[in-house]
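Tutorial, part two.
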Amino acid sequence: MNSAALRALARVATATALLLPVAACTDTSPASPRATSSASSARQQTPAAEASTAPSGRNTAPPDRNSAMDIRVTLDGRPVDATLNDSPAARDFAKLLPLTLDLEDFHQTERIADLPRRLTTSGAPAPAAPKAGDLTYYAPWGNLALFYRDGPSASADLLILGHIETGADRLAGADRITVEAAS
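Running the prediction step on this input gives:
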């Protein structure tokens, strides 16, 4: 087993131990609204997009992280280790590869880019707060989000697709991401 797979397995074990007590609780409150942090971002959300009630097709168990898929990611032309989890959304994202996207800052927490099409959200795991390095999909906007700081809270609208292993400074300054299937 390579070191990236071992790190991913360790993260999954930790996350599973932390999520089990939470999975027994039900939270039907809406997620915190995402607001733009500067005038440079032209994106605006409508109140309907901010509600985060979980669709009936969502699973409450985390996806099987043991079958994570290694991917090749380059940030501004420099390679980094990365994996996708085994969620339906991550598998759907993998169908888009290879993919090169220009990134822009959002809320001084993440780098975002529009995807060529929306991803499936059926069978999504229970919401989890994003951590630095998480590669995510924000369903209301249909965009990819790469977190360089920990996110503020869990949201049913934000699906974690995988994780990139690199420092926060490198993630925060990235202008272009290329994602390819590992050979």
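The radius of gyration is 16 Å. In part three we will examine how such features are distributed along the chain.
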